């Protein structure tokens, strides 16, 4: 894809929030790792659900029939997004953390005292605490894979030394929400499957920045949050159908004992699932406009999946330009230390999320300064406690995190860099 094919003005026109102002400044959204803005079609889909068929499912009247069909279509759409074998492998929930706690409870009876599970020092707390809680309750041994402090990539040799005949489970992040590192999840899954371990992938940070294909990865579970990829606050889980059907669940007697119903407790968010469809329709639009030359060919993928993959590839190609600009700009500022991959040859192994520190910098003060100019960034640990603790910066206020996505412009990156330099120059 050439940069000329990616019409940034057309992209930005899809997002109403990008036209808003912060006092006399335009709003510059670089807080995207914590949640992206939504395109108009998400708002329209959610409004439609709330106004035209705001009813519970499975009734014998018009609005209930429409609501039931909407939910079916939402499961099909997410299934195509991750290339699931069936929509029965898709479970909706309020968010990734709640879904993960639910799965930890469901999976716990499979393990015996002395069994081992593996996690990493790169995890978000949502993919850390649920499994450590499960391990403590079941008497399991937890092994934690470090990452290299020079390359910010997982120590795969250490991982290899931890895998043994007692390894039963692993919780691994697809991409770090603080370091930006994309982990080789397909290779990691292969190694763990060799000893029969189950693999649970946290794709929350990766989903807005790359193609997901659960069949190619061959993992057992994968979880994400739609508000990280241009949708509403909603969590989604993919799991192998045979596993989902075999696990114990905590459900009402009236709920059918089939997936995904057996995991989707109570009334689901009809508007959230409608908005999820809108987000994926937007990515499809991007695939059909900016990603025409990036559409997968060959057999094995459904047509919507091909559109979605093309859209994600178009995003990735443009975001590499933003990553290059941001990292080069920050590296030019004396004292700034980027905690993440900075080797241009390795940019394919990172998302555009960039975290940094500097001598004497109080991250919260910089975030407030940037906010005064209409530039929104996060500071602190961003729920990546295992990361900041491993780096030894938890007590120093964590990091400043700048997170571009495909609707940001090069000019916005330059503005953020100039403001960082101005603040540190004081």
Spell out the key features of this protein:
Aspartate Aminotransferase, domain 2, seven-stranded mixed beta sheet, 426 residues, alpha/beta, 14 helices, Aspartate Aminotransferase, domain 1, single chain, four-stranded antiparallel beta sheet, 2 domains
What this model shows, in words?
The chain has 14 helices and 15 strands. With 426 residues, the protein is of the alpha/beta class. It has 2 domains: 159 residues, Aspartate Aminotransferase, domain 1, CATH 3.90.1150.10; 240 residues, Aspartate Aminotransferase, domain 2. The strands form 4 sheets. Strands 4-10-9-8-7-5-6 form a 7-stranded mixed beta sheet, sandwiched between helices. A 4-stranded antiparallel beta sheet has the order 11-12-15-14, covered by helices on one side. Helix 3 crosses helix 10. It is globular. It starts with 7 loop residues before the first helix and ends with a helix. The relative contact order is 0.16.
């Amino acid at each position: 894809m050439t940069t000329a094919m990616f019409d940034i003005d057309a992209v930005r026109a899809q997002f109403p929030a990008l036209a808003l102002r912060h006092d006399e400044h335009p709003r510059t959204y670089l807080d995207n790792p914590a949640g992206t803005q939504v395109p108009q079609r998400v708002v329209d889909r959610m409004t439609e659900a709330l106004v035209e068929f705001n009813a519970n499912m499975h009734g014998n009247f018009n609005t209930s029939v429409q609501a039931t069909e909407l939910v079916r279509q939402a499961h099909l759409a997410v299934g195509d997004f991750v290339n699931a074998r069936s929509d029965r492998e898709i479970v909706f929930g309020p968010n990734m953390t709640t879904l993960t706690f639910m799965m930890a409870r469901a999976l716990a009876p499979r393990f015996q005292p002395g069994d081992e599970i593996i996690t990493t020092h790169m995890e978000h707390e949502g993919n850390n605490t649920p499994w450590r809680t499960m391990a403590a309750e079941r008497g399991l041994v937890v092994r934690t894979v470090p990452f290299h402090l020079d390359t910010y990539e997982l120590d795969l040799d250490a991982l290899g030394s931890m895998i043994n005949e007692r390894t039963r489970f692993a919780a691994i992040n697809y991409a770090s929400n603080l370091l930006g590192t994309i982990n080789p999840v397909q290779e990691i899954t292969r190694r763990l499957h060799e000893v029969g371990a189950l693999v649970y992938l946290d794709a929350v940070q990766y989903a807005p920045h790359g193609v997901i294909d659960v069949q190619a990865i061959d993992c057992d579970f994968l979880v994400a949050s739609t508000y990280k990829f241009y949708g509403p606050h909603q969590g989604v889980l993919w799991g192998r159908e045979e596993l989902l059907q075999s696990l114990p669940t905590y459900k009402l007697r009236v709920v059918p004992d089939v997936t995904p119903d057996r995991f989707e407790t109570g009334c689901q968010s009809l508007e959230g699932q409608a908005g999820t469809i809108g987000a994926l329709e937007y990515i499809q639009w991007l695939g059909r406009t900016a990603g025409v030359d990036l559409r997968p060919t060959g057999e094995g993928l459904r047509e919507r999946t091909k559109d979605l993959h093309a859209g994600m590839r178009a995003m990735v190609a443009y975001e590499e330009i933003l990553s290059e600009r941001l990292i080069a700009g920050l590296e030019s500022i004396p004292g700034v230390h980027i905690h993440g991959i900075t080797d241009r040859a390795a940019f394919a192994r990172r998302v555009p999320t960039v975290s940094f520190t500097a001598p004497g910098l109080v991250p919260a003060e910089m975030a407030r300064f940037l906010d005064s100019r209409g530039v929104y960034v996060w500071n602190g640990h961003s729920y990546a406690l295992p990361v900041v603790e491993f780096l030894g910066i938890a007590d120093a206020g964590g990091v400043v995190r700048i997170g571009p996505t495909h609707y940001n412009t090069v000019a916005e990156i330059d503005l953020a860099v100039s403001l960082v330099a101005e603040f540190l120059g004081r």
